[in-house]
Design a protein that fits this description.
By secondary structure, the chain is of the alpha/beta class. It contains five helices and five strands; from the N terminus they run E-H-E-H-E-H-E-H-E-H.
């Protein structure tokens, strides 16, 4: 998950995504890993490495901790987002923590949910260069 060039700034990213649509998450992770001259660490909660919580309140607290330690929150802005209360909660946490939000439109996606467009600091297309440029531009 880390670039091999240690002289670069390490961008700490939280990728908000729906577990039912993991393909985009893993592809984005791969794109960031392969981006030239870009170092990042992943603070996301992928399905294969879920948080050990028993209640929604515990999960929300854990998500707050994950997001608190980041420079930026990336949202894979597929139309399925409205079916995930957790993506909406992650957006709310990012706003509460004053974390910049970059929405990424998945390849082939024609529309982006209006709520994500309104909350995001920027909406970018599905290309490594535009995503990395946006992370650099908006990271705290």
């Amino acid at each position: 998950m880390y670039s091999t060039n240690s002289a670069l700034k390490n961008y700490r990213c939280f990728i908000s995504h729906a577990w039912g649509h993991n393909d985009s998450y893993y592809k984005l992770e791969e794109m960031l890993d392969k981006a030239p001259r870009f170092k990042w660490s992943n603070h996301s909660v992928p399905e294969h490495d879920s948080l050990d919580t028993a209640t929604d309140a515990e999960l929300e607290k854990e998500l707050e901790e994950q997001i608190s330690g980041t420079n930026i929150v990336l949202i894979i802005s597929g139309m399925y987002y409205s079916h995930s209360k957790w993506i909406l909660k992650e957006i709310e946490i990012a706003e509460d923590k004053n974390k910049p939000i970059v929405a990424i439109k998945p390849r082939g996606q024609k529309r982006t949910p209006m709520e994500i467009q309104e909350k995001a600091d920027e909406l970018v297309g599905w290309s490594t260069s535009s995503i990395v440029s946006s992370i650099r531009r908006h990271s705290l």
